[in-house]
Amino acid sequence: MTFATLGLIEPLLRSLETLGYQTPTPVQAQAIPAVLAGRDLMAAAQTGTGKTAGFALPLLQLLAMEGPKVTANSVRALILVPTRELAEQVHEAVRQYAENLPLRTYAVYGGVSINPQMMKLRSGVDLLVATPGRLLDLFRQNALKFNQLQTLVLDEADRMLDLGFSEELANIYRALPKKRQTLLFSATFSDDIRLLAGQMLNDPLSIEVSPRNVAANTVKQWIVTVDKKRKPELFVHLMRKGKWKQVLVFAKTRNGVDALVEKLQGLGINADGIHGDKPQATRQRALDRFKASEVQILVATDVAARGLDIEDLPLVVNFDLPIVAEDYIHRIGRTGRAGSTGEAISLVCADEVNLLSAIEMLTRQTLKRQNEPDFEPEHRVPDTDASGQVVKKPKKPKKPKASGGGGGKRNLGKWVDSGEVAPAEPSIKPVRKVPVFNTGPRKRKP
Ligand code: AMP
């Protein structure tokens, strides 16, 4: 199969030739003809599958071939994305695909001045990439009209809901013409996403290019257990031992990012960090330098790293496990992309055991443990498996204390779980159901 047989027009084929795309990826093979035929889409596709071209190519073709010329402050196709970085990245891809077409494309997002964006929108834009919050600001200030809108794309819809954009999406949805084509892309499909799809899509074609909720199988995944306080030391040790050249590292919080970057830089390691507190220009610069291999280690929070397209990234390290298990799939999706192989290593400490268990249950696999000599944790990480159970091996019985005060938490050693008591009989392995995680809407900026 070729892009020509999918029905793409010559100016797009020329752009693809320039970019060196020879064969359509599975998501492209399914999405391109369906979008050209005017169908709504509900596509389960992870970043790295070529989904951007899957929706952008046919969209550009429809814009070039059909419909009236765009009028002042109007937009004919809208791509909604969760983060500024993704807006830039998707727009850059669109710009490349549209190189030989007489179409105006643009990206708007928050964190930068709104005035230049308002100016740019005055003459109308055929295809606009936007984050939901800034799009609504522009709409409310009359810088944007939707009367010409023919297609809406929700890219990384699951992430938009995770980031708490559901209200913005509802407001945008109300402002759009009812008659339009809608394409929804999501790496994972929760019940909330299915609800959203039910409201927004009309007889959609469902496309699933990777099994539901299963992490990319081109990525070799393993964990190293370690005490929390020794994680930075272990990271540096593994980095030197493995001679890591380019690593994207995920930390849970902005402070965590800053602390690790500071520690690495203090050791003379070429590291930089991106998170929501940093100005957009600084984040983009760090990312560009990482992509250009001028920065060796890029430490990021989930939001800042969402959807980043970094070619041939060999390794992702989860310095902290994500709070929401589905983020694990997004994180490791940065490597092993477009058919190449990659590696994802997670440093796991005892109080992350429930997060680990949730990830294993979601991805239906037990992550291989590889202990590092000299870093074996004092606070053991209980065994977990893909069934979602945490198995606590019995501890050696302690000598009974004369005072009789040894019950409850203290008997369990340092890894404690309130409400449990140590096993009376060492031969019995207590099995505990893992609590269900709240995967509902989260705050905008973790
Ligand atoms: P995406 O999943 O849209 O983020 O795309 C992942 C990467 O694959 C990007 O670097 C694209 O430029 C690249 N890509 C997309 N489609 C193709 C294709 N058909 N052939 C080669 N590379 C592609």
Q: Could you characterize what this model shows?
A:
With 446 residues, the protein is an alpha/beta fold. It folds into two domains: 4-208, 3-Layer(aba) Sandwich (Rossmann fold); 219-391, Rossmann fold (3-Layer(aba) Sandwich). The protein has 15 helices and 17 strands. The protein has helices at 10-19, 26-36, 51-65, 84-97, 115-121, 132-140, 157-162, 166-175, 191-200, 231-242, 254-266, 280-291, 302-305, 325-332, 353-363, and strands at 41-44, 75-80, 105-108, 125-130, 151-154, 181-186, 205-208, 219-225, 247-250, 271-274, 297-300, 315-318, 342-348, 368-369, 383-384, 389-391, 431-433. A seven-stranded parallel beta sheet has the order 3-4-2-5-6-1-7, sandwiched between helices. Strand 10, helix 12 and strand 11 (297-300) form a beta-alpha-beta unit. The longest helix is centred in the N-terminal third of the chain and has 15 residues, at 51-65. It is globular, with a radius of gyration of 24 Å. The two termini are 43 Å apart. Adenosine monophosphate binds at residues 21, 23-25, 28, 47-53, 309, 311, 337-338.
